[in-house]
Every structure is written in C-alpha cells, then in structure tokens.
Write a structure and sequence with these properties.
Strand content of chain A: 15-25%
Shape of chain A: globular
Radius of gyration of chain B: 16 Å
Largest sheet of chain B: 5 strands, mixed
CATH architecture of the largest domain in chain A: 2-Layer Sandwich
Mean pLDDT of chain B: 92
Low-confidence stretches of chain B: 153-164
Number of strands of chain B: 5
Order of helices and strands of chain B: EEHEEEHHHH
Number of helices of chain A: 18
Helix content of chain B: 25-40%
Helix content of chain A: 25-40%
CATH superfamily of the largest domain in chain A: Aldehyde oxidase/xanthine dehydrogenase, molybdopterin binding domain
CATH superfamily of the largest domain in chain B: Beta-grasp domain
Largest interface: A-B, 57 and 55 residues
Number of strands of chain A: 26
Oligomer: heterodimer
Distance between the termini of chain B: 47 Å
Distance between the termini of chain A: 61 Å
Bound molecules: FE2/S2 (inorganic) cluster
Number of domains of chain A: 3
Shape of chain B: globular
Low-confidence stretches of chain A: 1-5
CATH class of the largest domain in chain A: Alpha Beta
Structural class of chain B: alpha+beta
C-alpha cells in the first residue's frame, strides 16, 4: 500500500469529524443525557477504609425511605469473580479473577460497598447516608515496594503476583566488564484519565430476559463477556450498544460499572442508570499504573550502548485488572527503540490498597519511556555527549528486528523523527546557548518513543465487516467500530470513499452494537486505524470488484473496462453511456436478484512500530519551583495520515496529557489513611489553556506497511515521549538529575537544595 | 418555588426546588442537556458553562432561583433559524472538537468572551477559556476556532489586532 499523497481524493484530506454539527449544537446525546421512561437511579456507597472486613450492613433505615427500590450489597448480589480487563473468552486463564460486584472485604478507599436503587437521584443520595456499615479494619499497604514484604495480604497470593522477563544477548557478562555504567531510579505516578464525561452506564431489561446495556465503552465484546458471566446469561441475551464517548483514554476500556448496572436492571426489571461524579471517578474507577524502575546502561567511550538492564515494579492497586498485561507490554517496547544486543527486562506486578490501575493511553509506554529516556539522558551526560547525537547513534533503523522475538519493527523512522524534529526546534543552537543567570533558568530536552499497531504477534487481531451499496448508490458499513472522539468514523469513511470514488458523506457507519455488528476486538492496543482501517480498505476493494463485475454485465464489457468516478460509472469503450452507482445497484437487483453486499474478515498481518521524537524548552523559576513549558516540537512517524488534522489533534491532546504527567498530575494517597488527597479538579490539576505551550508537529509519512495507505497508530504514542522530554529539559536547565514524576514545585526546590549548599 | 426567566429568547416559568442548581433545571426540567456536569459541580471544569445576562457562568454554581428574571443562553440557543453561529461553524471547520463533551461549555465561554471583547488577543482567548477543561484537543484548535471568528469580526470592523 503506502501510496503517496498525490492522486488521492479523500485520504490525506482534512475532513471535519462526522458528528461535529451535533456536538456544537449540544444535540448529541451522551449516556448521561438520556432519561428513559421508568428509569431508576443507582448511587454507590464507597469504602472509607483502605482495607477492612465488612462485619455487617444495616440498610433498614435506607429501605424505609419512600422511593427506595432496594439496597444491594455483597449479601444479595452474585458472588461471581471476574477480571475487568478480560476481553476474550479464555483470557481468564492468564490472569487473576479477583473482582466482584460487591465485596465482603474492602481493599481500597473507594471500593464499592453498596448500591441504593431509587426512583430519583435525590432519594438515592439520601438513602445512601442512612446505610450503616460495621467494618473491622485490617492492616493496609499503599507502597508498592513494601508489598514485596508480604506483610499485608490483600489477596491470597504471594507478592509480586506476576513476573515477566524478556532478554536478548548476555547482559550480565557485559555489565561485568563494562567501564561505564549509568544507573537511575525513575518513578511515575498514578494518574487520573480525566475524561470530561464521568463514568456512566444504563441497563435496560426487556420482557424476554434480555439486558441491553448502553455504555460509552471501548470494547463492547468485553462488556458482553463479563456481564453475561456475572448475570449467568447466554451471550445473546446481553446486548451492548456503544454510546457516544465523552472521552476515555483507556479509562472506559475496562468493564467497571456495567455488571452491577445490568444486575440492578435484571433484578428490578426496570431501566437503571448508574453515573459517577468526578470524585468517584478519581478514587474508584481506574488510574494509570504507578511504576518504579531501576535501569542500568553500559556504554563504550564512543557512545555505543553495550547493554541495558531494567528492574520494574508496577503497582496495579487493589485488584489485579491489567497488572500482568501491562508488565509484559512495557517490557516489549524496550526492544523496539534502541539497538541493544544485550538487554534484560524484569517486570513485577504487585497489589496495594490503592485505586485500581488499568489501561491508560499508552498502556505502560509513557511509564517505561520515562524510565528508559531519562536514563539515556543521564548516560549521555556522563559521556559528555549531546543527547541527540547519543540517541541517533543507537536508535533502531528501518526493518530492524525485535531481538526479544516480537514482530518486525517495519519501516521504523525514529531517526528521521529525531533529526527533522531537531532541525525545526533548532536543537543545536538552543542546546549551546549560554545559561541564564539569576532566578529563571532555561533548558531544552528531548525524548523518543515507540508504540505498537495492534495485537499481531501477541493475540488474535481480526475484524469482520459488512459493506453494502443501496439502491440509490449510498453505502452502509456494518462494523464493531468504537468512535472515541478521535475521528475513527470519518477516517474510515475517507478510506472507503477513496476506493469507491464517492463522497464520504454518502457512506453511513453505525457504531458497535453486539446484536448487529460483526465481531471486533475493540478500540484498544492502538489497532483501530492500522487494522480496522485496513479491513475497511479490503472490503471496499471487494465491493468495488463485485460492482465492476456486475457493471461489466450491464455495459457488456470486461470488468477492467469499468470506470468509477464520483458515483458515476461507464465503460471505457463507451464513455458517453453513463450510469449512476444507484442505477447499477437497482439494475443488478432487478435483473440478477443480487444485492451489492459483502461480509469479510480481515486478519492483521503485521505490527510495525509507530515512532516519535519530542523536543521541549522550559523555563524554571528557581524561587518558586514553578515550570513553564515554552515550546514543543513533536515529530512522529505515522506511516500515512489518513486525516492529518485528526492526527495533529491526537498529538496536541497527547501533549496536554503528557505535560500533566510530567508536572502536575498525581493521585496522591495519604500513607496514614489510604485516602486519595487529590480527589477533585481543585486539587488534581490538568493543564488548562493558558498553560499549554505552543506546539509544532512534524509528520513523517513514508507508508511501507500493511495499514491502509500505510497508516500507523498515533493516539497512544502521542503522549509517550513528551513527559521525559520535559523532565530532560528541566534537568538541563538546572543541572540536576530529577527522576521522580511529576516535577512539582516541592520536588524542584528539594532538587536544588544540594546546589545551594 | 416558581422560577421565571428567559431561556434562549423564550420566557420560561418552572416550579423548582429552592436548592436546585441552574444546571439541573436546564437539563432536567427544560431538557436542555447541552450543558454538562464534568466536575461534580465544583466550578472547576466549565462543562456546564452558559451565558447569564451576557456573562459566562458555571451553571453548576448558580442556584436556579438566582436566575430569576435573568436572560440565559445555552448552547441550544446559539443557532438562529437553523443556521449555526459562526463560533459553532468555526469549531467544526478548525477541528476543535474531538469527543465533544467540553464543546458546549467551551463555545459558550468563547461566546461570552467575544460578546465583551470582539477582538481578543491570543492571550486573552486563553484566559477567557481558562476555566474550561478539555482532555482531548490540547486547546490549540479551539483557540484557532475562536481566533477565526475574532478575525471575521475584525475584517468587518476593519481594524487591526495583535492576537490574530
Ligand atoms: S460542572 Fe460546573 S464547572 Fe464543572
Ligand atoms: S473534546 Fe473531549 S474534552 Fe474537549
């Protein structure tokens, strides 16, 4: 594929998002905006303690309030165990199933204790306050490093509950002989996804025992799987409809509210809405995984990396969730960015009595890149080498293989990202500048990153789609696509429109509905544009083939002679006899009793890396410790931008998250009480408009992979290099080696203390 | 209690609970769900922004009864005769929308800004939407969309401006 931009009519163009008008008019209905007839409201009671046995729950007073339908606890709900991140039947065997709708032992502040179901929110809220719970407090631990002592037992497993190793070559031997070894310890925080739409779901029972779930989800088949399991229903009695998504970033990827909401609907035989507020989202849903990494790099005097070693701890919080998967995901990335012949990664996952971690934009990559890149920086510093030069010497090159055994890196153009980005940023000039004297210091830094394109090489990665042409020439694609606000639907329309040579607005695409959509593994693993986009391209080509063979009958020519252009078609031999696409579709129906429809399954065939290099300039106020990001240049190898504006939109948004990850965002937990201290936007700071730096984006579009027109992923990698680039710039400004994120003013001032002495 | 106010040009009379918030009345009593609640009503996210007597307010922080006799404009009231307001169109054209959850609040904040200052500089625009959080876009295209409209105003007014 990998065609150049020339000659393309729709691909590579900046079409606006398909539901933009509905969004600017305030007409689009998110799940929270829906009010169904007879709908009940559920509110949750959360644990105030980080670890405790529930001795008794007294709901009498709550139940006595008029309008309260029921109070639900571990005593009257299913005891089925599940794992919220399981997305295919059979995956359970690879992970711990330690969650339940309600538990008899709470394991973090924010764990679910009970639900009140009532006719309206006010009644539910009032009743919640009347539930009396008696707890027996248990010892707790919020420190992932202390988890290794196994003093506090959160689950009946030994900590770490999961260990994964990847290696290549013989790093032990190299480290023994190496003269220069640079070691760092890097820490990254738990982060709130902060999708502006809080977590919400509605479940609707019907008269035949079927439950329909309306949910802004990322993997509808995962929701179906877990809900069916918990409710004991066959899969075809659980219908999941993906509703408009008010932001997710992985936060709504796991099955969090749906099993409970579905159960409440099933038992009350009424539609039920369950919606969390911001505080509840922060303390009780999912977070980015906190990670602590110790990394060592051995180099020779000329700046060639000889070996690297990573010891990484992932804090998955109180329930297992994706704790095992993320440890593996982080390790794999390390073998896909630098050419290191001898490398070992050991990742371990532990439980703590804290909010559960889960998928979060990048799935471990922002964490492992922070660990790796900050150490690359300090290694360059030790060598007295420019960090750009040091990286370029060691970065992977196109068609390199993954030494840990993963799929080929493909046309990996990270060096191009680094060099082009450096040029636009004026890296050498800025790096060589004289330092400022006085209170304000300036510095520049950079970091690189890689991320994947689907599950090929790890899990099944396929998608089925049905594409049909209607009698007026318009088209419908049936698929399990999940639009998350990134422009998936519009981009997919652009691909089909390109193949069919027709206006993208004439193509309709419904989103995921497990009753009508063919199977799709969901919007995860940075797979959507690369894999589902390729599926759309393939199926459009198949329908085009069918169309041309049928048109050939009508024009009495060979299929190769059939020309298709702007919904008009003709034979090259008789250019004057033109028919519309609709006329062909109608004629085919009449004469051949045939519909122009094809269902096809596409299987991913590659998993190249996406790549990026980010450059940052910062100003640090050494008096207050406050940091201002002054400039960002972000270069990404995306293969091909199907819609460059969408790609840039992902990058700008990814940088917003990354600036927060580097400087302000941290779900702080009080070690004495286990309580989340940053439980609202008043004390959990995400970057707002005045604090966003100017951003310049460079796209490297060289195609050369199996994605549609050579497209690779961008949404996740967009947030993976920015934080270490910022930290690197701060270290450059201050002459420090700060490695604990976020760089709060207190940490900056502490970091400057040794210099003041 | 009875609340009388003007919403999107229409006189409204509704029975409200004394501690109901303007946001609740708009969403629940009037079915105007464009304004969202993004932060538990703490005035920290701006998703609930509407215009009250020409000023942007967080409708989660306004008691419904405080709106008595006031003129409220919500996102639903921006278009006229089926035509989008220029800000709405600019948000579409500039790609200022991703998930769209912040969009109604963002547009209303921008609208109030432009009503008071038709030619804001870039810094003034950033400040004007400082209370509106967006997790998707990184704000850049939102700022461009507002600048586009400020620029259109400007061309009509025929004066120069520092921010555009
Ligand atoms: S809901 Fe009003 S400011 Fe967030
Ligand atoms: S577009 Fe999603 S929060 Fe702004």
């Amino acid at each position: 594929m990998g065609e150049e931009g020339q000659g393309l009519k729709y691909v590579g163009k900046n079409l606006p998002i398909h539901d933009g008008a509905a969004k600017v008019r305030g007409r689009i209905k998110y799940t929270g905006d829906l009010a169904l007839e007879g709908m009940l409201i559920a509110k949750l009671l959360f644990s105030p303690l980080p670890h405790a046995k529930i001795l008794s729950i007294d709901a009498k007073a709550a139940l006595a309030i008029p309008g309260v339908i029921g109070v639900y606890t571990h005593e009257n709900t299913p005891k089925t165990h599940y794992n919220s991140q399981v997305w295919f039947d059979g995956q359970e065997a690879m992970t711990l199933e330690d969650e339940r709708i309600f538990t008899d032992t709470v394991r973090f502040v924010g764990d679910k204790v009970a639900a009140v179901l009532a006719v309206d929110e006010r009644t539910a809220q009032e009743a919640l306050g009347l539930i009396k719970v008696e707890y027996e407090a248990l010892p707790f631990n919020v420190d992932p490093e202390k988890a290794f002592d196994n003093v506090v037992s959160i689950h009946p497993v030994q900590e770490p509950f999961f260990t994964k190793e990847f290696h290549c070559g013989n790093s032990d031997e190299v480290f023994e002989q190496a003269e220069i070894i640079v070691e760092d310890r890097v820490e990254t925080p738990k982060v709130h996804h902060a999708a502006m739409e809080p977590h919400v779901c509605i479940a609707v029972p019907d008269h035949n025992g079927k439950i329909t779930i309306l949910t802004p989800c990322q993997i509808m088949y995962s929701v179906r799987l877990t809900v069916a399991k918990v409710l004991g229903l066959p899969f075809n009695k659980v219908r999941v409809i993906k509703t408009p998504m008010g932001g997710s970033f992985g936060g709504k990827q796991e099955v969090i509210l749906e099993p409970l909401c579905a159960y409440l609907a099933q038992s009350s035989e009424k539609p039920v809405k369950l919606e969390l507020n911001r505080k509840e989202c922060i303390i009780s849903t999912r977070t980015r995984t906190k990670v602590i990494g110790v990394v060592k790099t051995a180099v020779d005097g000329r700046g060639k990396i000889l070996a690297r070693d990573f010891q990484v701890i992932a804090d998955t919080g109180a329930y297992t969730s994706n704790g095992a998967a993320i440890v593996s995901a982080m390790g794999k990335k390390l073998f896909r960015l630098y050419r290191v012949d001898n490398q070992r990664y050991q990742g371990r996952a532990v439980h703590t009595n804290t909010t559960v971690a889960g998928a979060c934009r990048g799935y471990g990559t922002p964490q492992i890149m922070a660990i790796s890149e900050l150490n690359i920086d300090s290694t360059a510093r030790r060598l007295g080498m420019d960090p750009l030069e040091f990286r370029v010497k060691n970065l992977v090159q196109p068609q390199d293989s993954d030494l840990s055994g993963g799929p080929s890196l493909g046309d990996a153009r990270v060096i191009e990202c680094a060099l082009e980005g450096a040029k636009a940023f004026e890296w050498s000039e800025k790096r060589a500048r004289e330092p400022l004297v006085g209170r304000y210091k300036r510095g520049v830094g950079m970091a690189c990153s890689t991320h994947g394109n689907g599950y090929y090489g790890a899990f099944q990665d396929f998608v089925t789609m049905t594409l049909r042409m209607l009698e007026d020439g318009s088209m419908i694609l049936l698929s399990g696509l999940h639009e998350l606000g990134c422009g998936t639907i519009t981009s997919t329309k652009q691909i089909i429109a390109e193949v069919m040579d027709m206006d993208p607005d004439r193509i309709e695409m419904s989103e995921g509905d497990t009753e009508t959509s063919p199977y799709d593994i969901g919007s995860q693993a940075s797979r959507v544009m690369h894999v589902c986009g390729a599926a759309a391209l393939k199926i459009a080509q198949s329908v085009k083939g069918l169309f041309r063979s049928q048109a050939a009958f009508i024009f009495k020519c060979s299929p190769e002679d059939v020309v298709m252009c702007d919904e008009m078609t003709w034979s090259i031999k008789e250019p004057d006899k033109r028919l519309t696409y609709g006329e062909i579709a109608r004629t085919v129906q009449r004469q051949h009793q045939l519909e122009l429809i094809i269902t096809e399954t596409y299987r991913a065939t590659d998993n190249p890396g996406s790549y990026g290099a980010n450059f940052v300039e910062v100003e640090v106020d050494t008096l207050t410790g406050l940091i201002k990001v002054l400039d960002v240049v972000a270069a990404f190898d995306v293969g091909k931008a199907i819609n460059p504006d969408f790609v840039k939109g992902q990058i700008y948004g990814g940088i917003q998250m990354g600036v927060g990850f580097a400087l302000t965002e941290d779900i702080k937990i009080d070690p004495l009480t286990g309580i989340v201290k940053s439980d609202s936007f008043a004390n959990y700071h995400i970057v707002n408009a005045p604090d966003m730096p100017p951003m310049r984006v460079i796209l490297i579009e060289k195609g050369e992979n199996d994605g549609p027109y050579g497209a690779k992923s961008i949404g996740e990698i967009a947030t993976c290099a920015i934080a270490p680039a910022i930290v690197s710039a701060v270290n450059h400004a201050l002459g420090t080696n700060l490695t604990v994120l976020p760089l709060t003013p207190e940490r900056i001032l502490m970091g400057l203390l040794p210099q003041k002495k | 209690m009875v609340l009388e106010m003007t919403v999107n040009g229409k006189a409204i009379k509704v029975e409200v609970n004394p501690n109901a918030r303007l946001l609740d009345v708009l969403r629940e009593n009037l079915g105007l769900t464009g304004a969202k609640e993004g932060c538990s009503g703490e005035g920290e996210c701006g998703a609930c922004t509407v215009i009250m007597d020409g000023k942007a307010v967080n409708s989660c922080l306004v008691l419904a009864l405080q709106a008595r006799g006031k003129e409220i404009i919500t996102i639903e009231g921006l278009e006229s005769n089926g035509e989008l307001d220029r800000l709405q169109q600019a948000f579409i054209d500039q790609g200022a929308i991703q998930c769209g959850y912040c969009t109604p609040g963002m547009i209303m904040a921008a609208k109030a800004l432009l009503m008071g200052n038709p030619h804001p500089s870039e810094a003034e625009i950033r400040l004007g939407i400082a209370g509106n959080l967006c997790r998707c876009t990184g704000y850049l295209k939102i700022i461009s969309a507002i600048q586009e409209v400020a620029g259109t105003n400007l061309r009509k007014g025929g004066q120069d401006d520092d921010g555009v």
